[in-house]
Amino acid sequence: MNKWIVAVTVMVPTLIEIIDTSVVNVSLAHISGSLSAGVDESTWTITSYLVANAIIIPITGWLSRLFGRKLYLLVSVAIFTASSLFCGLAWSLESLIFFRVFQGLGGGALQPISQSILLETFPPRQHGVAMAFFGLGIMFGPILGPIVGGWITDNWSWHWIFFINVPIGMLSIALTMMAIHDPPYMKRTRMPIDYAGLVLIALGLGCLQIVLDKGQREDWFSSGLIVWLTVISAASLVLFVVSELRAKAPVVNLRIFRNVSFSTGNTIMFFTFFNMFSSIVLLPLYLQNLMGYTATLAGLVLGPGSLATVVALQTAGQLYNRINPKFLLLFGILVVAYSIHLMSQFNLYASFGAVMWPRVLLGFGMGFIFIPLTNTTLSTVKKEDMANATAIFNLLRNLGGSFGVAFVTTMLTRQSQIHQARLIDHLTPFDPAYRAALERGRALLEHYATAGPASERGALGLIYEDLVRQASMLAFNDAFFLLAVLMACLVPLLIFLRKGSPGQAGPMH
User: Fold this and answer.
1) Closest Cα to residue 386, out of 475, 304, 292, 506?
2) Is residue 154 over pLDDT 80?
């Protein structure tokens, strides 16, 4: 079978699944109104999907061996497609959340299975090209989700963000039946079921994802729910590690982390997507909340960065076998760190171009990180272990994004409060800038026929409003700066990466 037909077959449902992780975000108000639910309650439609995704991704390799990879892929796409239909037909919030869980369970396997099939289908010299194709879906999905979801919701209805998956899913099932074939080591295998491992990983990752998604809204550990979920998650994950290291047929083979290059690559990928998702969240918030951009204008700022990613992915894919991948990675990390550093210098008067170009640089740098990092990390893994390895790799990439979003949204809130308290210290009658601002406010309000005590109160209100904006801007600067430093700190880890021949075991320590 032509390798490009196989590539399209596995990437079509994968792209739709990645888009579905963020497509609902912009439709929450419509969903809550239609189903007579509060906006906070409707966020469970996002959380339920992410929790199911987080649980299923790491055990994808084990499930592929248990059922056979092709059969498991077909079942996953079928579950994703059917649950998408029922999500669109949902008659209440509870029913929508229920079907979103099944949608996440069906979609979670698509990323690691697609990646492992691509690496097996393309010859080693074309792995750069294969991962460039895979990277398009990984990079574009989180950006396309809100754009597609917003357009469909505004022009049709929120139901169609789910209905549109159905014909695509049916096409994917037909293509999978024709184009995908299992290699001997991925055919159905009879083996004991590790019930303890399944329960512990479901509890651990499920609770962790809820904590990351709901923590900021619940004010983290001031909430009893968050405290208990954190305790359950930590205890379950520790017991899971102990259980899997002792199990004869573990659901996730953690011994693969003895491969130093694989462990290092996963660490770099975790923090790279920590940075990427953080930046993607911060930029629209800055543009819409502080700069007054509409959603469309904010999308225009993000768009050129996506085009830069396409160019970088193609370029890096071609250069992978010609240049030491560490040099490509070093270049990508430094470009991303520099681009985020430029974002840390944004202010309340930044022009469209001043905001757009750092985003372009970020997209360009990410393209040079994704391909060499993915290929180098997985190049020392045996083919028989590839399904397990890609499952772990995709899990840590997704968790990196979840941790990043939770971290920056919390940091933004906390730093805004800190800067606001510091700026208020300067609001005294003895401060010349304060007196000048007060006079300008009075003059402005008197120009609009507001005088007397109302003018005084109004002027103070204008000053406080400006102070809040300044405090928020300083918080954004802090968050971007910390992300830039964190990205630069990944450079020393490149020493531990090494490129091997696919199918070759990496060094074990």
Assistant:
1) 506
2) no
Question: Which whole-number Å values give the CA distances from 206 to 47, 232, 401, in the listed order?
Answer: 10, 10, 16
User: What are the structure tokens assigned to 402, written together?
Assistant: 């979840």
CA 112 from chain centre, in angstroms, equals 15
Tell me if 131 sits within 8 A of 9, measured CB to CB.
no
Distance separating alpha carbons of residues 332 and 317, to the nearest angstrom: 13
Q: Which residue matches tokens 């992300």?
A: 483
Give the type of residue at 235. A
Calpha distance 111→297 (Å, rounded): 31
Backbone angles phi, psi at 259, to 5 degrees: -75, 110
Provide mean pLDDT across the span 459-487. Answer: 82
Report the C-alpha gap between 165 and 106 in whole angstroms.
Answer: 13
Q: What is the CB neighbour count within 10 angstroms for residue 289?
A: 13
SS3 state of residue 320: coil
Residue 409 tokens, joined: 């949204």
Structure-block tokens of residue 394: 């995709």
CA–chain centroid gap for 333, Å, is: 18
> How many residues are recorded in the chain?
509
Residue 187: beta bridge partners?
Answer: none
Q: How far apart are the first and last CA of the chain?
A: 39
Q: Give residue 483's pLDDT.
A: 93
Token couple for 44: 């469970």
Q: State the amino acid at position 294 in one-letter form.
A: T
Q: How far apart are CA 317 and CA 397, in angstroms?
A: 20
Architecture of domain 1-191: Up-down Bundle (1.20)
Supply the Cα-derived Rg of the chain in whole angstroms. 25
Separation CA 162–CA 31 (nearest Å): 12
Q: Which amino acid is at 164?
A: I
Torsion of CA 269, 273, 275, 281, to 10 degrees: 180
The two tokens of residue 429 are 């009658």
**What are the beta bridge partners of residue 259?**
508
Residue 472, judged by CB atoms within 10 A of its CB (0-12, 13-18, 19+), counts as buried
**Residue extents of the structural domains in the chain:** 1-191, 417-475
Among 276-290, 414-428, 471-485, 490-504, the range scoring the smallest mean pLDDT is 490-504
Overall average pLDDT of the 58-66 stretch? 81
